[in-house]
Amino acid sequence: MQLYRDDGIVLRTQKLGEADRIITVLGRSGRIRAVAKGVRRTKSRFGARLEPFTHVDLMLHMGRSLDVITQAEVIRPYGQPLTGDYPRYTAGVAMLETAERFTPVEKEPALRQLLLLIGGLRALGEDAHDSRLVLDAFLLRSLAVAGYAPALQECARCGAPGNGSAGDPQAASGRRLPAFAIPAGGMVCATCRPPGAASPAAPTVDLMLALLRGDWENADHSERRHQVECSGLVAAYLQWHLEHSIRSLRHVERV
């Protein structure tokens, strides 16, 4: 029986048989699916430690199809401050689902994705920023880690510069990219603009750039209408690149 140890965030759980659960965890060694035996019984020793949002330290032994969790210790229960706050809770659920979608291969190392998820859940729990901004920052950075960061300051097709931030001489001269084309990979110039491309407001693009960079001072002072527009673009861009819808995004309050 080969034992190994890992720690990570519980992404979701599924019932198995009468008393067991399959636990999906994003750990340091990648995404793990393992069986927690007997955790649905009232006398389970560690059933409550294996709930979604929980950062756990696990001991496991390798199985033929699924590994088996033999020990679980809580490092930090990130779900506790979210349960009574619907906007923060739904944003957290969307983070968990997105992290799982970005790690499709089991046990393929994804440490940067894990650290992004921990940071995102911590920020949600601290309630220092609007939950939608925290979620969009997490989604944009997850895309960047996966190699899909949207082009925001140059044309995604030809590389023409544009979209300087407010106060930038380049922006003041009117050299702003006019459209956001999801299949192209971000902002595009007038020459490269395909039919159906969105035309986001300049402050919306600045907000996306601020969230990608972690510039919370500017992000926090953005107007609500630009936050809503940003959320729509980020969600559409994310789901196009994942080639799969994120079901939990439907429940995130964006108005």
Write the topology of this structure.
Elements lengths: L2 E14 L3 E8 L2 E7 L17 E8 L5 E11 L8 H16 L9 H16 L4 H15 L23 H4 L6 E3 L4 E3 L13 H12 L2 H5 L3 H19 L13
Parallel strand pairs: 3-5
Antiparallel strand pairs: 1-2, 1-4, 2-3, 4-5, 6-7
Helix pairs in contact: 1-2, 1-3, 2-3, 3-7, 5-7
Largest sheet: 5 strands, mixed, barrel
Low-pLDDT parts are: 166-174
So what's the overall shape?
Answer: elongated
Give the neighbour order of strands across the main sheet: 1-2-3-5-4
How many H/I helical runs?
7
**Structural class by helix and strand composition:** alpha+beta
| Average pLDDT taken over every residue | 91
Distance linking N and C termini: 52 Å
- How many β-strands, per DSSP? 7
Number of spatially distinct domains? 2
Order of SSEs: EEEEEHHHHEEHHH
Account of the protein in words:
It contains 7 helices and 7 strands; from the N terminus they run E-E-E-E-E-H-H-H-H-E-E-H-H-H. The protein starts with a strand and ends in a 13-residue tail after the last helix. It has helices spanning 86-101, 111-126, 131-145, 169-172, 202-213, 216-220, 224-242; strands spanning 3-16, 20-27, 30-36, 54-61, 67-77, 179-181, 186-188. 39% of the residues are buried. Helix 1 packs antiparallel against helix 2 (111-126). The protein has a 5-stranded mixed β-barrel with strand order 1-2-3-5-4. Strands 6-7 form a two-stranded antiparallel sheet. It folds into 2 domains: 3-77, Nucleic acid-binding proteins (OB fold (Dihydrolipoamide Acetyltransferase, E2P), Beta Barrel); 129-255, no CATH class. It is α+β, with helices and mostly antiparallel strands and 255 residues long.
